[in-house]
């Protein structure tokens, strides 16, 4: 290789190396003073990362303090899975007393605050009566039954049925609203097919106490409900074009199909068949034939 060729090749390699270094370090400056200043700044930032974190933390604290000054009641708003649940201190104490079964504290909250909402809900959507039912605090249940609304009592009954607590079911069914046929019909009308689903409720609007008890197959609770006049209405034929069925399909076909499924699940229950039919065996065969036919029409009924 000639000397001239070697010199050209060495110059080309040096140029490629410098270009590669400039790409890796685009901010490198040839000025030694500027380079020293840049190195000091980067070293300072590298060795003190907590400066930026502390600044961010301080700005967050300032924002929170500003929000508290603008809304002094912001601390009293609980963020739950059902959205913001504004609760006063008294309501919090009231719900806590129901959960722990402290009857004296429960009575004190009601007596000292005439405007207390006894149907208030916590961040999980639970009422005081529901909390008392879940904790099996019988004294609190008896006290709250006298003050709660019909919707709250009905939901508490559903939770008692789900937990299969016969004693609490008997207590709730002893409420006058279940003895008064007119009041019960009014409640069923309020929780009809067209009622929008309540996001704070654990049950669909078409789940009635007798349907849930039958699905749980609890003989004692089903017997109590039948004695109170509860029954499960058999759904109409799939191709029924009566006003009710036509409106249901137009309003929400999915909810219509689900309500039919829930009704058939209750009707097929061993407990309900045994306690509500004169001939449970014959009724079971008739129901089986109906469901077999429905499975060919409505795919939701087909066993996969």
From TrEMBL:
What the entry lists under Gene3D superfamilies is as follows: Ankyrin repeat-containing domain
Bias (Basic and acidic residues) occurs at 18-34, 59-78
Compositionally skewed regions (Basic residues) per UniProt: 35-58
- Domain named Transient receptor ion channel: residues: 240-302
UniProt GO cellular component terms: cation channel complex; plasma membrane
Q: Where is this region: Disordered?
A: 1-82
Q: What is this protein called?
A: Transient receptor ion channel domain-containing protein
Tell me, what is an example of a GO biological process annotation in this record? regulation of cytosolic calcium ion concentration
Record's InterPro entries? Ankyrin_rpt, Ankyrin_rpt-contain_sf, TRP_dom, TRPC_channel
Q: Which UniProt keywords apply?
A: Ion channel, Ion transport, Repeat, Transport
Name the Gene Ontology molecular function terms of this record: inositol 1,4,5 trisphosphate binding; store-operated calcium channel activity
- Report the source organism: Littorina saxatilis
């Amino acid at each position: 290789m000639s000397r001239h060729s070697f010199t050209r090749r060495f110059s080309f390699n040096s140029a490629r190396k410098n270009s590669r270094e400039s790409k890796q370090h685009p901010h490198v400056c040839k000025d030694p003073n500027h380079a020293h200043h840049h190195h000091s700044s980067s070293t300072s930032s590298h060795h003190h990362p907590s400066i930026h974190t502390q600044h961010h933390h301080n700005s967050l604290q300032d924002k929170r303090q500003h929000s508290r000054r603008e809304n002094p009641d912001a601390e009293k708003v609980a963020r739950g899975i059902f959205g913001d649940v504004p609760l006063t201190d008294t309501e919090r104490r009231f719900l806590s007393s129901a959960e722990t079964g402290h009857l004296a504290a429960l009575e004190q909250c009601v007596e000292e605050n005439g405007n207390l909402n006894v149907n208030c809900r916590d961040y999980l959507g639970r009422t005081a009566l529901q909390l008392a039912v879940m904790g099996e605090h019988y004294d609190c249940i008896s006290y709250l039954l006298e003050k709660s609304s019909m919707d709250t009592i009905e939901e508490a009954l559903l939770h008692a049925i789900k937990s299969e607590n016969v004693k609490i079911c008997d207590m709730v069914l002893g409420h006058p609203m279940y003895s008064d046929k007119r009041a019960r019909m009014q409640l069923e009308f309020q929780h009809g097919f067209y009622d929008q689903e309540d996001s704070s409720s654990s049950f669909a609007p078409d789940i009635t106490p007798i349907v849930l008890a039958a699905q749980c197959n609890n003989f004692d609770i089903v017997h109590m409900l039948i004695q109170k006049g509860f029954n499960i209405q058999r759904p109409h034929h799939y191709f029924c074009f009566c006003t009710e069925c036509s409106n249901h399909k137009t309003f929400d076909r999915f909810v219509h199909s689900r309500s039919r499924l829930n009704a058939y699940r209750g009707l097929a229950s061993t407990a309900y068949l045994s306690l509500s039919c004169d001939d449970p065996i014959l009724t079971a065969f008739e129901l089986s034939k109906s469901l077999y036919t429905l499975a060919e029409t409505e795919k939701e009924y087909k066993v996969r």
